[in-house]
Design goal:
By secondary structure, this protein is α+β, with helices and mostly antiparallel strands. Helix content is 15%, strand content 35%. The chain is built from 7 helices and 43 strands. The strands form 11 sheets. Strands 18, 19, 20, 21 and 22 form a 5-stranded antiparallel β-sheet that branches. A hairpin with a 6-residue loop joins strand 10 and strand 11. The radius of gyration is 35 Å and the shape is extended. It starts with 6 loop residues before the first helix and ends in a 33-residue tail after the last helix. Pfam families: eIF2A, RRM_1. This is Eukaryotic translation initiation factor 3 subunit B. Keywords: Cytoplasm, Initiation factor, Protein biosynthesis, RNA-binding.
């Protein structure tokens, strides 16, 4: 990644004779209270009454309800407790203390245990709270910090102070922009900026800029209401059209990843922590917050291996998001996969549906329908092929199986849901009879039809490698890139044939395209066939309704393509994460016209602000489409005004350039006149500057090139 050093810091280091590149910045510790003039967005997290500070006792637990024993049984009880708790983490030297009543010389029924790390203490609390030592002794485990907080609760209750209501900015006000523009956010260097996409003016209009707004990345919520930032002490949400006030904070130290539920009701935060013993797996903490209230609804803690896909041991990578949301747009369910189970939770109580996980032996992948509480599951072959692979559809909350398809000789499967939940495509890689190679086909489920019929689709050349697959949003078509690089083919299919016959059919195949990615417009109909990264940013804007290319273009070394939420404009991006040259973004019209280009050093992120679904009914949208000319007159007049304004701006620009040219010519003539005597002197007194008044003369010059002397002797 390119360096993010502030130029002023570099200059200061140079003046002090210090090579900045030799400094380990992460090892630099500032004096208490020093911020080198850069205020932190995290600072007020420490000042809030409702957020607890790190007191330094987070690695200590209190275990209550222990047996009360005399001095002679003290060592035996201590050995039992140490055996239980040393399995969870490393107990510090002298880190187990059982207080004794000085009068009776018996234990008091509780002990303190100090671990090396906070994560080990939290895990010990989670694993052993309510642990049954025997019938009479069930452990009650608390964090020492919690106990300290409980002791501070006053004996007398006092009503909380009521604060006067101050109305905030309407968080949807940005949707009422008179020019119907969309916003986007970018990160470059230490700055995060929000802009309007003013395509009519062929430039972005600044909305809000803030340096050091986040410590890693920013993320819009799915409906565009919030912008989330990530900090050492947790995550924060901001909202508005132009002011971007802070709305809520979520305490989660060392948070690394975040995710929203589809309806923005919940925010999921994730962190991982190194264990004290290098041989142990990383500790993972996942919190689920109510996004509006900031309340912690549920937390999950454990080893990183517990949260890997399939829950298989020995895997250090974690698939994100760990929890996948389902049940449509009401955020009713979320689920994660474990070893031989899929755990489905409901958000009314944040507990397992039916209080138990769905058992699925050897399940390796699952996904939700985007619109309905239906899970699709994939289970690979077992027993050397004796038990076939299968894809199943399961209804939640009843957990009844709606449809199952057995698959034979399967190497791998990947599931693709269409955005309306109408179709599910399963890409199946199968072994040939010799088992030395594979070929690919598709199983197409028609989810909304009776008995969920399934069609099998094979490419014309079934040995073609599948490079990319993408459904048309809200539509019935899909595109496939298949074949060999660098010029594979691209085929388009429809789930409908002519005369409304329900059967998959091929629309066309485009031969030899330099593309490795597909990007449908959010409204369907248009698609960009993109050759990203090593394909040098080749772009083809294609109209699938007409089956024709609208434009071809190039954004050299483009790494990402993002449509705006309306499908009117599209951004192509070059980030410094992948390429250090010409970082920035281009904004194009849907049909491939380059509108403007912005270059930014150390450019990391571009993201359009999502829009919520339209409140218009389908009938109202059809009425608008029929009377589009009536509505478009207003906007055509505005476009004409903008066009005249741009023409006037172009004239002003040309006039300014001409004035600059005239000034330069005038300065040149003045200088030419001032140097006239000098030129006359160089021409041996000739006065005229006109070339035709000169006389050409031939001058012969003899030049001695070399002299050598040779002595001859008489033999």
């Amino acid at each position: 990644m390119a360096s993010m050093v502030d130029p002023t810091v570099e200059a200061l280091a140079a003046n002090l004779g210090i090579d900045y590149l030799d400094i380990d910045v992460n090892s630099v510790q500032l004096p208490p209270g020093e911020d080198i003039g850069i205020p932190s967005d995290d600072e007020d997290l420490y000042q809030e009454d409702d957020l607890e500070l790190d007191t330094g006792f987070g690695n200590i637990i209190i275990v209550d309800n222990l047996p009360v024993v005399p001095r002679e049984k003290f060592e035996k009880l201590e050995g039992v407790i140490r055996k239980i708790y040393s399995q969870i983490g490393i107990i510090k030297e002298n880190g187990l203390w059982m207080p004794v009543d000085p009068e009776t010389q018996k234990t008091l029924g509780y002990c303190f245990i100090e671990y090396n790390t906070v994560q080990e203490a939290e895990l010990a609390k989670e694993k052993t709270n309510a642990y049954k030592l025997d019938r009479s002794h069930i452990f009650a485990v608390s964090m020492f910090e919690d106990f300290d907080r409980f002791m501070k609760v006053p004996d007398q209750w006092a009503p909380p102070e009521t604060k006067p209501y101050t109305p905030g900015e309407n968080l949807q006000h940005w949707l009422t922009d008179e020019k119907a523009r969309d916003q986007f956010v970018i990160r470059a260097g230490s700055d995060t900026e929000v802009f309007w996409n003013d395509a009519r003016q062929l430039k972005p209009e600044p909305v809000y800029r803030r340096p050091f707004w986040t410590e890693s990345f920013v993320q819009w919520s799915p409906l565009g209401t919030y912008l989330a930032t990530v900090h050492r002490q947790g995550a924060q949400l901001w909202g508005g059209a132009s002011t971007f006030n802070r709305l809520m904070r979520y305490a989660h130290p060392q948070v690394k990843l975040i995710d929203f539920s589809p309806a923005e009701k919940y925010l999921v935060t994730y962190s991982s922590h190194e264990p004290s013993n290098p041989r142990d797996p990383q500790r993972v903490v996942i919190n689920i917050f109510d996004a509006r209230m900031g309340k912690l609804m549920r937390d999950f803690k454990g080893n990183a291996d517990d949260f890997t896909v399939g829950g298989s041991g020995g895997v250090t990578g974690v698939s994100w998001p760990i929890f996948r949301w389902g049940g449509g747009k009401d955020d009713k369910y979320f689920a994660r996969m474990g070893k031989n189970v899929i755990s489905v939770y409901e958000t009314e109580t944040f507990s397992l549906v039916d209080k138990k996980s769905l058992k699925v032996e050897n399940v390796v992948d699952f996904s939700w329908s985007p619109t309905d509480p239906i899970l699709s599951l994939y289970v690979p072959e077992l027993g050397g092929g004796n038990q076939p692979a299968r894809v199943s559809l399961v209804q939640i909350p009843g957990k009844e199986e709606l449809r199952q398809k057995n698959l034979f000789s399967v190497s791998d499967c990947k599931m693709y849901w269409q955005s309306n939940g109408d179709y599910l495509a399963v890409k199946v890689d199968r072994y040939t009879k010799t088992k030395k190679s594979t070929y690919t086909g598709f199983e197409l489920f028609r989810i909304k039809e009776r008995d969920i019929p399934i069609e099998v689709l094979e490419l014309d050349n079934k040995n073609d490698k599948i490079i990319a697959f993408a459904w048309e949003p809200k539509g019935h078509r899909f595109a496939v890139i298949h074949g060999d690089n660098p010029r594979p083919d691209i085929s388009f299919y429809s789930m409908k044939s002519g005369n409304n016959i329900v059967r998959v059919s091929k629309l066309t195949t485009l031969k030899g395209k330099q593309a490795n990615a597909l990007f449908w417009s959010p409204g369907g109909k248009y698609i960009i066939l993109a050759g990203l990264k090593n394909f040098n940013g080749q772009l083809e804007f294609y109209n699938v309704d007409e089956l024709e290319t609208m434009a071809t273009a190039e954004h050299f070394m483009a790494t990402d393509v993002e449509w705006d939420p309306t499908g009117r404009y599209v951004a192509t991006v070059v980030t410094s994460v992948h390429h250090e040259m010409e970082n920035g973004f281009n904004i194009w019209s849907f049909n491939g016209k380059l509108l403007y280009r912005i270059l930014k050093d150390h450019f990391f992120q571009f993201s359009w602000r999502p829009r919520p679904p339209s409140f218009l009914s389908l009938e109202k949208e059809e009425e608008i489409a029929k009377n589009l000319k009536k509505y478009s007159k207003k906007y055509e007049a505005e476009d004409q005004d903008v066009s005249l304004q741009l023409s006037e701006q172009d004239r002003e620009k040309r006039k300014m350039l001409k004035d600059e040219w005239d000034k330069w010519v005038s300065r040149w003539r003045q200088l030419h006149e001032e140097e006239k005597l000098e030129r006359q002197k160089l021409r041996d007194g000739e006065v005229s500057d006109e070339e035709e008044e000169y006389e050409a003369k031939e001058v012969e010059v003899e030049e001695l090139l070399d002299v050598s002397e040779e002595v001859l002797t008489d033999d």
